[in-house]
Amino acid sequence: MSQHDPDQPEHHEHSGDHSSDQDAGVPEAETREHPTVPSSAGGTDPASYHPVPDAHGDWTQVTREQPAVPPQAPGPWGYPAPAPAPVPQQLTARHAAPSARVAGWVWPLVAMLALVVGVVGGVVGAAGFRLVDETAADRPGTVRDGLFGVDTATEAPLAPEDGTIANVAAELLPSTVQIIAAYGGDDQGATGSGFVLDRQGHVVTNNHVVAEAAEDDGRIQVVDQQGNRYDATVVGRSAVYDLAVLVSEDMAGEFEPTALGASSRLRVGETVVAIGSPLGLSSTVTAGIVSALQRPVTTGDPDSDTSYINAVQTDAAINPGNSGGPLVNLLGEVVGVNSAIATTGGGFGAEAGNIGVGFAIPVEQVRITADQILRTGEAQYPIIGAEVRTGNENGDGAEIQKITPGSAAEEGGLEKGDVVTAVDGVRVTDGIALIVSIRTHQPGETVEFTVRRGGEERRISVQLRGQVG
């Protein structure tokens, strides 16, 4: 299978096999190696697959108690017991999709799968009595108290007995929007999806939807269900977690925010709904089930910071243009942000679409990253300062290729040649799984690594450091 990224206007990538080393020690302890790959015709981003630092955020810190899960639809959408932790897939995706068409690019994957990012539609935070507090930082849209300083939805919009796909659509469509962003010199060169975060006009979407517009100070617009357009600016974004927060003061007080749920309460087989603007078709609703949980995959822009996430996998139809839109449970709560899909497309310019394998960023990470961005305009992720191989592994663990001097890994006692087999007791099969596992924690936390060294198993504690990204 090949990797296709529909979120890149007229941007195609060359394919080839990669086995790269992840350096979890940039600045503090994380540096990346970028295998050379020819850039695509007519594009500017190389299809290099680069290593990412070992870092992660605790997705359960701020999770509130959730109401009972509603009954599922009959048939195959029942409630099978949660499946064991899946073997990590090395997948990637990036950039926003061109409006009006889908441009493809192929990105080789170690796991022989390809992730495609669809971008279209971002929701605007709305209706509120308080305007955005710009005194918390120099950036527009920041709020001194983060998520605690804005008006968010505190209750699930639907009771368990009312949990139908039709009711979810009725509740969420008004709060799901399309995002149009400048790309390649065109003010409408990229499109994506998103959802309203609060009543102050904040919107959550994927970083790759607005990355180029943010870098070039390009125009960003949010389009609601009725077709009304609102100018928006980027409050902050994280390439590492492939998330961005926008703000449009004109939307403040005009929209109901979405309720954030908990992906940790999802069960394999549970019904979920994906909402967004696939292929430019705004306000599109699709439904499916949770196919797998804690699926290590990568999304984002490999030419900068690749995003490693412990994704929610779903068979709900997700296509180019869905990126940044909400994945919702039958209580009407957002449980993830749709970010990538696996495809079978191959070759230059091959267009790819849904084959029933989509991936969403867990909402717990969205909470953490959005809160950080609202407070400071930036997001942090954890690093240890160890380089680890991310390709051609046998599933027996992640081998440390290099330790950065003075890094958290060195101070904790990790050594080159150590094979990490578990983090806090959770099995690690390869480099991607290690990176994802670390990034489910927060800077400052201490995690325990189980390693094989010289034929012996030992446990080493490392205090994670933080880095902006």
TrEMBL record:
<feature type="compositionally biased region" description="Pro residues">
    <location>
        <begin position="68"/>
        <end position="85"/>
    </location>
</feature>
<feature type="transmembrane region" description="Helical">
    <location>
        <begin position="105"/>
        <end position="129"/>
    </location>
</feature>
<dbReference type="InterPro" id="IPR001478">
    <property type="entry name" value="PDZ"/>
</dbReference>
<keyword id="KW-0472">Membrane</keyword>
<dbReference type="InterPro" id="IPR043504">
    <property type="entry name" value="Peptidase_S1_PA_chymotrypsin"/>
</dbReference>
<dbReference type="InterPro" id="IPR051201">
    <property type="entry name" value="Chloro_Bact_Ser_Proteases"/>
</dbReference>
<keyword id="KW-0378">Hydrolase</keyword>
<feature type="domain" description="PDZ">
    <location>
        <begin position="370"/>
        <end position="430"/>
    </location>
</feature>
<dbReference type="Pfam" id="PF13180">
    <property type="entry name" value="PDZ_2"/>
</dbReference>
<dbReference type="InterPro" id="IPR036034">
    <property type="entry name" value="PDZ_sf"/>
</dbReference>
<comment type="similarity">
    <text>Belongs to the peptidase S1C family.</text>
</comment>
<keyword id="KW-0812">Transmembrane</keyword>
<keyword id="KW-0645">Protease</keyword>
<dbReference type="InterPro" id="IPR001940">
    <property type="entry name" value="Peptidase_S1C"/>
</dbReference>
<dbReference type="InterPro" id="IPR009003">
    <property type="entry name" value="Peptidase_S1_PA"/>
</dbReference>
<feature type="region of interest" description="Disordered">
    <location>
        <begin position="1"/>
        <end position="58"/>
    </location>
</feature>
<feature type="region of interest" description="Disordered">
    <location>
        <begin position="66"/>
        <end position="85"/>
    </location>
</feature>
<dbReference type="GO" id="GO:0004252">
    <property type="term" value="F:serine-type endopeptidase activity"/>
</dbReference>
<keyword id="KW-1133">Transmembrane helix</keyword>
<dbReference type="Pfam" id="PF13365">
    <property type="entry name" value="Trypsin_2"/>
</dbReference>
<feature type="compositionally biased region" description="Basic and acidic residues">
    <location>
        <begin position="1"/>
        <end position="21"/>
    </location>
</feature>
<protein>
    <submittedName>
        <fullName>Putative serine protease PepD</fullName>
        <ecNumber>3.4.21.-</ecNumber>
    </submittedName>
</protein>
<dbReference type="GO" id="GO:0006508">
    <property type="term" value="P:proteolysis"/>
</dbReference>
